[in-house]
């Protein structure tokens, strides 16, 4: 190799405009997924283009506020929402109640689903008993349960939490069950040879072994429940981000609707990032067995 | 009588489609207390099945395993097990892996800690106690596996190709470690391997098994394990006697493999 590479500057690598030195040494790049860089520059470009298009269209007065608000109107509405809240409920409370419902539902779903899944992975009787229920409930979208739950519980807090509980329950059950199934038999054999009892093997071998899959289930459940809570609030609620945009729609407040949608996206994304962070923190051995 | 006796063990696996596989046929083996024996044979000769029966993970179709005049009916901490790989608990540090047995038995924490420290020294991992096991190399992981097994102070150690996944150099070093541990602890060790050299070097006695049905074909009494305690491994492995025995056993196993290949060709006419 007589050709000298000047090392690319840190900024251009971070932006994805240049490949790092290691990738530059590869001659085969098409088909090598690890040779595809972040392309961050183009991500920034996308955001900038979208925002400027919105800004220009607003400045030129091209936007009909009924369909899409101008930048100014949106910022003004945002300020108002933050200072006065929406329908006598503070803006953050609308978000807070939605997040609370998700956390509550997922927590309850995990509390019931994880032991159930473990039992189904460990005992033929438990598997046989619950398999029809789990397999039947699994393909039913949680939203399809809303009418029934409204009939049972009305539209109070219990109804929403129960819906989210159901939405996460089967995800958590299946995750825990497959976590048990993925335990390598040599680890269990090793533990028995080291004198561990069944209970000890459950808590010291099977459960930690199933944790990565349980956590993946938890992440999925959070995502599904976030989607479900917003949809449930659209149908029946007086508080929460979903209800906020539905009520705003009735008052033709498109700007509030748009703000609500952005908040829903941002929070969903934040939840996902938070869960990934927790996963790296709590289960560093993931994929290293 | 101590040690381990395999009394006329036969194992027939019945497959879900009804076919029967004779994994072991009338295997008799008497392992004396403090003896290190190696079991060698081509794949499919039932050596791992035999070890799993001795460990108590499988119930033989007929015959029994007797330890200290008691029939083995399940796994127990008197028979420690070292697997090829992947049997460590990757969610625990090196120390916690080694302390697993004593901790499950409810031994006092201080005593366990002393033992763990001592074992870390013996297997040369004193600086790695706090590391998660997945950060260690394959050879180091197997040293943890050995230490974890010894922490429980089992009377018998069963090794199922414990060095099989290691590179040649690490493997030689680990063989010396196994010998050293055997010398210092005088445990009864049964070692399954598919390496002729390893079987010769580590076994006071070598059992050669043959497949279809799995059975013991021949036994050798060997001097190399004892010599390995004083002489250098390279010297022993290069010695005339070692090379000669190795060639003899290799041709024995080659003969079996060819027989199997020949049978396969007869089964599938071109």
Automatic annotation (TrEMBL), chain B:
Domain of life: Bacteria
Ranges for domain ABC transporter: 4-236
Keywords for this protein: ATP-binding, Nucleotide-binding, Transport
Official protein name in the record: Taurine transport system ATP-binding protein
Similarity comment text for this entry: Belongs to the ABC transporter superfamily.
Record-linked Gene3D superfamilies: P-loop containing nucleotide triphosphate hydrolases
Listed PANTHER family: ALIPHATIC SULFONATES IMPORT ATP-BINDING PROTEIN SSUB, TAURINE IMPORT ATP-BINDING PROTEIN-RELATED
GO MF, one example: ATP binding
Membrane-spanning residues: none
Pfam assignment, any one: ABC_tran
Database matches in CDD domains: ABC_NrtD_SsuB_transporters
Cross-referenced InterPro entries: AAA+_ATPase, ABC_transporter-like_ATP-bd, ABC_transporter-like_CS, ABC_transporter_ATP-bind, P-loop_NTPase
């Amino acid at each position: 190799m007589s050709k000298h590479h000047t090392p690319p500057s840190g900024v251009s690598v971070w932006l994805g405009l240049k490949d790092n030195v290691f990738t530059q040494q590869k001659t085969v790049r098409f088909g090598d997924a690890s040779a595809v860089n972040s392309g961050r520059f183009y991500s920034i470009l996308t955001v900038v283009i979208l925002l400027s298009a919105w800004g220009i269209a607003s400045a030129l007065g091209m936007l009909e506020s009924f369909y899409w608000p101008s930048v100014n109107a949106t910022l003004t509405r945002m300020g108002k929402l933050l200072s006065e809240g929406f329908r006598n409920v503070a803006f953050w409370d609308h978000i807070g109640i939605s997040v609370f419902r998700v956390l509550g539902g997922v927590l309850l779903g995990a509390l019931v689903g994880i032991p159930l899944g473990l039992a189904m992975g460990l005992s033929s009787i438990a598997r046989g008993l619950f398999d029809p229920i789990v397999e039947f409930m699994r393909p039913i979208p949680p939203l399809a349960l809303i009418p029934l739950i409204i009939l049972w519980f009305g539209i109070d807090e219990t109804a929403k939490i129960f819906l989210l509980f159901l939405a996460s329950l089967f995800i958590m059950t299946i995750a825990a069950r497959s976590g048990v199934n993925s335990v390598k038999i040599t680890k269990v054999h090793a533990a028995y040879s080291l004198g561990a009892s069944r209970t000890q093997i459950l808590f010291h071998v099977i459960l930690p072994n199933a944790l990565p899959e349980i956590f993946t289930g938890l992440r999925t459940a959070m995502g599904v429940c976030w989607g479900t809570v917003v949809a449930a609030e659209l149908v029946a609620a007086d508080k929460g981000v979903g209800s906020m945009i539905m009520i705003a729609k009735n008052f033709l407040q498109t700007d509030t609707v748009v703000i609500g949608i952005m908040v829903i996206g941002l929070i969903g994304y934040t939840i996902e990032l938070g869960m990934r962070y927790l996963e790296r923190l709590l289960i560093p051995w993931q994929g290293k067995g | 009588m101590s040690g381990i006796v395999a009394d006329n063990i036969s194992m027939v696996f019945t497959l879900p489609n009804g076919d029967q596989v004779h994994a072991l046929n009338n295997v008799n083996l008497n392992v004396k207390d403090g003896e290190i024996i190696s079991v060698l044979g081509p794949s499919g000769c039932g050596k791992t099945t035999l070890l799993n029966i001795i460990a108590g993970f499988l119930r033989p179709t007929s015959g029994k395993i007797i330890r200290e005049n008691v029939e083995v009916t399940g796994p127990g901490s008197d028979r420690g097990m070292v697997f090829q790989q992947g049997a460590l608990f990757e969610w625990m540090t090196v120390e916690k892996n080694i302390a697993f047995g004593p901790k499950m038995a409810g031994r006092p924490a201080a005593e366990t800690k002393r033992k763990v420290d001592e074992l870390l020294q013996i297997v040369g991992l004193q600086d790695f106690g706090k590391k998660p096991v997945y950060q260690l190399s394959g050879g180091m992981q197997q040293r943890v596996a050995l230490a974890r097994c010894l922490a429980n102070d089992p009377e018998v150690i069963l090794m199922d190709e414990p060095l099989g996944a290691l590179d040649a150099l690490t493997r030689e070093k680990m063989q010396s470690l196994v010998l050293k541990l055997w010398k210092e602890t005088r445990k009864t060790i049964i070692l399954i391997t598919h390496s002729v050299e390893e079987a010769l070097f580590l076994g006071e006695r070598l059992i050669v098994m043959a497949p279809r049905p799995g059975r013991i074909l021949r036994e050798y009494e060997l001097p190399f394990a004892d010599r390995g305690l004083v002489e250098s491994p390279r010297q022993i492995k290069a010695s005339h006697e070692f090379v000669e025995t190795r060639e003899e056993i290799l041709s024995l196993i080659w003969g079996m493999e060819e027989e199997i290949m020949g049978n396969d060709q007869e089964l599938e006419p071109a």
